[in-house]
Amino acid sequence: MIYSLYRLTTTLAAPLISRYLQKRLAKGKEDPTRFNERLGIASQARLDGLVLWLHGASVGEAISLLPLIDHLQKNAPAYRILMTTGTVTSAELMAKRLPQGVIHQFVPVDRLPYVRAFLDHWRPDVAFWAESELWPNLLCESHKRGTKMALINARMSEKSLRNWQRVGGFAKKLLSTFDLFLAQTEKDAENYRTLGAQNVTCVGNLKYASPDLPCDDQDLAALQALTTDRAVWLAASTHHGDETLVGRVHQQVKQDHPTLLTLIAPRHPNRADEIEADLNAQGLHVARRSKGQQPDAQTDIYLCDTMGEMGLFYRLSPIVFMGKSLAPLGGQNPLEPARLDCALLCGPYMTNFPEIMTRFEEVDAITIVKDEGELATQVNQLLSHPAQANALAERAKQVAYGEAAALDRIYEALNKTFSLDQRGRE
User: Which is deepest, 119, 277, 305, 338, by most CB within 10 Å?
Assistant: First the structure.
């Protein structure tokens, strides 16, 4: 009943959806050169043979799928791989990091005409969806056409469970489209079973298997030469409100560390103009990487407003604060900087990564601060005591590499259900 209502609503709301997409396009949230992909119109030809479709909603999910894609190319060569994401930033990143032979497309908006056009063209044989994004029309139409599907690295918070339980029959219908669920944690697995999911298992978190973020060695050497005599820290993956707060923290810490250089890497670089204006209003001198500006002696803030360079910024800074965590927004993935020798700080709201945070907290591998005052105190403390920062970074690194075998377990579970390498030998 609810699914029928959803289909009817997405059909009748065509003018509203079209207007919404046009607004997103005007705001730079859609790619004008590839906009038709959001309508299900492919921009590339379908390759011959079997197609394996992977979907990750945004940057974090897409990055987590990269090691699995490498594994699939090596072990299931019969499949041609299609990758979809839903955001401009994830598409830009995938253009740089997807291996040769993998096709990227924007996922179609969840209206039946768009979904059917997408599926008519690509005809995926197998589909792996990452984490928790469930689009009813895409799932049900794919299942109807015989596509075998798995939800991998699946997660479900207690809040999401309660929300889905309000529409339990609808949830069970959507979950019945999957042949396999690979949950991040046993608690996630339990929550999916509570909603009626079948064939649910926990084999580890795919995020642990991600490779070290890449870095241009020449760029790193150049920036290290410019900052060698300065105290440096980084606020990573910041969201609206974070940058203004970080600017105030910079001014507090600078009282004890006059050479301080603060790096800010916003999650969405298209906000850079707004961020620069806010920081300038505090009297701070800002240099922007996207404009080719380099930090000099007068620079307070180096605004790292580019895509695909987080590996560079993490290697440049021994101390990293994870954005989106001082307000109840869920935080950002701490594993990436942990692999690159960074001492980690975060706010109390890292709810998107409960299992990872538990592991970090068990061995005192991350420092949690409750507000900007504590953030300033901890940044000052770690800058003043490098040995303490190094010890914190080493503990974080051990956690980050501690579950590297998760990828093998995940692939084995997928192969057992879908016979991926068996079909490669047919």
Answer: 338
